[in-house]
Write a structure and sequence with these properties.
- With about 350 residues, this protein is an alpha/beta fold.
- The chain folds into two domains: about 5-130, no CATH class; about 155-360, P-loop containing nucleotide triphosphate hydrolases (Rossmann fold), CATH 3.40.50.300.
- The protein contains nine helices and 18 strands.
- The strands form three sheets. It has a six-stranded parallel β-sheet, sandwiched between helices. A five-stranded mixed beta barrel has the order 4-7-11-10-12.
- Helix 6 (about 290-300) packs parallel to helix 7.
- The chain is elongated, with a radius of gyration of 21 Å.
Length: about 350
């Protein structure tokens, strides 16, 4: 087996590879080895399309040009406003950047607004391997791991989900606003983005708004969580929870990407073990009808909807429609960023606890 060393100074390294230290490149297996999500490789940029930059290991965005060499990892992607793509099960002459954080695969579909631009294309140079010749995989690289348990115990800290109708419905902004309000109420808060595709701007935003600690799936090397099994996601959740525990948060805001109908989101909200330890949820929406419909779906699953929020709350008319047609509290950005949000959370959580107690005793 012929191996070579890469010159790191000539490689633009994506953030998903931040924990990759190996510089050993195997070119010989590029046509015979079938990659898995998280496998690390060196690619040459062919043509620039949708992605003109990658997020580098320090979090900054770095422009890429034809002929550049990048280190990235294979990964799937699901993004209704962007693209869908998969890790290939065979060698291809051309690969695509699916996400700016370094998720690489084969494009399956793309939003119509990007059709004229197309994806940024790459060719595979070879795989990064360890000293034994095994392909380096980013998942749990240099991290000790645990399997899922029903955490947290006794709902302390309290877990608040940030859910929504779809991508770009306001989930991250709502989580950030809530973190701000809880900070003003002098409450310690952690933020976890459990699912999605690697790009760290969401956790950076929530951190800036006041969360004490912010983590996401990429901190354990997941290029994305699309096509993961529910057991994989629950194990990932367990490991993320253990990472925030030393900060002693009173609240953990857990954002789940995309909408309620998306594969992994649907699996989580229908998982009794996961939902049994959730104190409540904020539900973000683009419009009044989906706000009510989505909140109703969660309520039927036994989830305590603390309030509906998101982009629709910038429209007084849409707010009025929700208030006229439902009993869900409408939480604007100002509501969430007020220290009074703590009282709203506690009131809604205690109401659910009372209802559950009555149901058990009846």
């Amino acid at each position: 087996m012929k191996l070579s060393k890469i010159n790191s100074s000539k490689i633009k390294k994506a953030i998903i590879c931040k924990n990759v230290n190996s510089t050993i490149l195997n070119k010989e297996i590029k046509k015979t080895y079938f990659p898995k999500a998280g496998d690390v490789a060196i690619f040459k940029v062919k043509e620039i399309g949708k992605h003109t930059r990658i997020q580098s290991t320090n979090g900054n965005n770095k422009y890429i040009l034809p002929g550049d060499l990048i280190m990235a990892a294979f990964g799937n992607r699901y993004a209704t406003e962007q693209m869908e793509g998969f890790v290939p099960n065979t060698y291809h002459n051309t690969y695509h950047i699916l996400g700016q954080g370094g998720a690489i695969g084969i494009l399956e579909s793309m939003h119509a607004k990007f059709e004229l631009i197309g994806p940024t294309t790459l060719c595979l140079i070879g795989y990064i391997v360890d000293e034994k010749g095994g392909v380096v995989n980013t998942k749990y690289l240099n991290n000790e791991t645990s399997t899922y348990k029903s955490v947290p115990i006794n709902n302390n800290p309290k877990v608040i989900l940030s859910l929504g109708t779809s991508m770009d419905s306001g989930k991250t902004t709502s989580a950030a606003f809530l973190a701000r309000g809880l900070k003003l109420a002098r409450k310690k808060t952690a933020y976890i983005k459990l699912t999605g595709t690697v790009f760290t701007k969401d956790k950076t935003m929530v951190k800036d708004y006041g969360a004490n600690i912010c983590l996401d799936f990429s901190d354990f090397g997941f290029p994305s969580t699309y096509m993961c099994t529910i057991d994989e996601i629950l194990d990932l959740y367990q490991n993320l929870i253990e990472q925030v525990k030393p900060y002693n948060p009173e609240y953990i805001i857990v954002e789940i990407a995309d909408g309620l109908l998306q594969r992994e989101t649907s699996a989580l909200i229908h998982n009794a073990k996961f939902m049994s330890k959730v104190s409540g949820a904020l539900f973000s929406s683009l419009d009044s009808m989906s706000a009510i419909t989505g909140a109703n779906m969660l309520t039927k699953l036994g989830c305590n909807v603390i309030g509906v929020t998101g982009l629709f709350t910038i429209s007084p008319l849409l707010i009025k429609e929700v208030k006229q047609k439902s009993n869900y509290p409408v939480l604007t950005g100002d509501n969430l960023m007020s220290k009074e949000i703590f009282n709203t959370l506690e009131k809604q959580i205690k109401h659910l606890e009372f209802e559950n107690k009555m149901a058990v005793n009846s």
